[in-house]
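Q: Hi! First time doing this. I have a protein sequence and I read that you can turn it into a structure. Is that right? Here it is:
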Amino acid sequence: MTDPAEVLLPPSETGIPITLIAAGEWEKTRRRLNPGARAWCEANGFQGQPGRSLAVPGSSGTVEQVLAGRQDDGGGFALAKLCRVLPEGRYRLAGTPADAGLIALGWCLEAYGFGAYGKPQPPVAKLVCPAGVDRAAVLSAARASYLVRDLVNTPASDMGPDELEAAASKLARAHRAQFTVVSGKALEKGFPMIHAVGRASPRAPRLIDFTWGPARAPKLTLVGKGVCFDTGGLDIKPASGMALMKKDMGGAANVLGLARMIMEAKLKVRLRVLIPAVENAISGNAFRPGDVLRSRKGITVEIGNTDAEGRLVLGDALALADEEAPDLLIDMATLTGAARVALGPDLPPFYTDDDELADAIARAGRTDNDPVWRLPLWQPYNRLFESSVADLNNAGDSGFAGSITAALFLRRFVEKARAHVHFDVFAWTPSALPGRPRGGEAQAMRALFRVIRERYA
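A: Yes, that's right. Below is the predicted 3D structure, encoded as structure tokens:
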């Protein structure tokens, strides 16, 4: 499905009613059914069980109504599976539940399919947008998620630095943003860590940079890790570790999705998007363990592990972002396996020393069914990436607190920004969940949009 507008129909449309049944409400609902419908429910053993649905036929044999038992889990997306289990057709909610907006969004997100390589996409049922729900806002969030998923799901053979640049350029052009790219000798001189990580690939490294909005508006800068494939470099990953590395540009994808929502909503910000786009490959000129790189900021970094490359490219991009002292600086990256060990694939950690901002992000995550979890910038762990020959080591050798130390490493490149938050996202759903098909995924994007909209509306 290429456009969620084909799934979420205008509220003026008609559709087969879906009656939602809360726990303990079955008897009340059953009494309101006609005798034929009650008999159909009894024949199918349906009693409004949580998570179960039943299409009830009318006298002509066609579906007349749908009964669906509500369930507490799923965070508002639990009903999303109905778009795939119901017969093709148009449906509407009977009444307007408090979470109607999340139901509509979940329906759209469940309907997503990645068909770029010819795999047939099964048809889905359509939902009439519930009364009182901002259909345009739901479609904007869904389209941004579709963009993120498409970018992450595309194999690295077709999503290298060139293609990531093209996707960013297309988005920038659509919203008349100013778009530039730093590459070649200018990249080597101005962003030496980005150049070092990407120089071994025949697909040249670059820094993608675009700005949108009035120059005098509050400065919001988004930085996304764009490692289009990560072999691990000379510290090569095993085959199992490389299997999903097409998603190592998931931070960049999430940043582009968020930027799209911000520009579509015309928020009153001066938006800047920075994406270091590279491939961490292996060749004779690959950077090596033990090398010392001098960053854009002047900080020297000893390479303890070439597979800890994301923090290197982000360090240079963050240094540039910080030079103009933005009001809010957000970076997003598929940075560490340690974050997955700590919190699993569904719950990305974030780091900030701004308590007010952290509280706002956590609230927004709960409201928008976009879960996140704050972890600490524990300063004593700075000792874990000390170097005997340089200012920092990019990996250290303790093996402890991998996600926290990565966040602390990035924090060294930010001094002037009024507020900074780092997200260690997974950008992937390994097993399908309601509203979240298996594959590439937007994480923290909707929560961040809510926070930004509330700050700069």
